[in-house]
Design goal:
The chain is mainly β. The chain has one domain. It is built from one helix and 15 strands, in the order ββββββββαβββββββ. It has a 15-stranded antiparallel sheet that branches. The two termini are about 35 Å apart.
Length: about 260
């Protein structure tokens, strides 16, 4: 699952500060909404997403558990943990992604540091897998940067944006993305009062490998994104199946960085 969503092809220097975003703790209940295969008969899960404002950077932690039921009734469980630190100047991203199976055996273990130049080009140095270095193409955005860029695009009335994204969730480096802005919402009364005064936008994001010209995304997601970075109405499309994510817990701590 992707931690965040990708954005603006033309980088604007002010976007790197992501001034409108806040820290948050969000918990989502995941339920099966669509099947495209006969190999799976059910799915359920849970995802937590935490953002901490470290004043000079953003610390994010995402934990997701998925349980799939096979046609013979057996269950497959996967647990993933995704942790990042992203500097607010847009220059550095450190990342760790680990995923384990039913028996607790690690299936994915990626970690490293990415550095980014003002034009979006840069370099990823992986510590796991060891001795791996990949270049980032111009225009690449890190996760929190592209979240702010997504919101800026919605405010500007842009319908489509398609930049490269590097978030550390792929050992292949930056991914191609295609983002569709589906509409915007003025501030209105919400189930979560902390969101009542915050405008939002509906977005759809498709993620593609940059190694080929495949027109089928390897992952797709849509959501309602609020100006402070909170997401509701999640849809996670894994290809063979699709899940919806309902926000079941939300807290937004006061910023420790006001006036700094």
């Amino acid at each position: 699952m992707k931690s965040a969503l990708a954005l603006l092809a033309l980088l604007l220097p002010g976007l790197a500060q992501a001034d409108g975003l806040t820290g948050q703790h969000a918990l989502y209940t995941l339920t099966l909404s669509k099947l495209r295969t006969h190999d799976i008969t059910g799915a359920t899960g849970q995802m937590s997403f935490d953002v901490v404002d470290g004043c000079t950077g953003w610390a994010t932690t995402q934990h997701m558990t998925l349980i799939l039921r096979n046609t013979d009734g057996t269950l497959n469980k996967s647990v993933s943990d995704y942790i990042t630190w992203e500097s607010k100047d847009g220059k550095t991203l450190t990342f760790t992604l680990r995923e384990s199976d039913n028996d607790g055996k690690e299936q994915i273990d990626d970690a490293g540091t990415a550095t980014r130049n003002p034009d979006g080009s840069g370099l990823v140095t992986y510590t796991t897998p060891a001795n791996t270095m990949l270049k980032l193409p111009k225009g690449t955005l890190f996760p929190m940067m592209h979240t702010e860029a997504l919101l800026a695009a919605a405010r500007a009335g842009k319908k489509f944006i398609a930049p490269p994204l590097f978030d550390g969730t792929s050992a292949d480096g930056a991914q191609a993305t295609f983002v569709t802005e589906l509409g915007s919402h003025p501030a209105e009364k919400m189930d979560w009062p902390v969101l009542d005064k915050i405008p939002s936008a509906d977005v759809d994001i498709a993620f593609f490998s940059r190694k080929n010209d495949d027109e089928t995304p390897n992952f797709r997601t849509s959501m309602r994104y609020f100006e402070d970075g909170v997401a509701t109405n999640l849809v996670l499309d894994f290809g063979d199946f699709e899940m919806t994510g309902k926000l079941t817990k939300l807290s937004i701590p006061p910023s420790p960085c006001k006036g700094q």
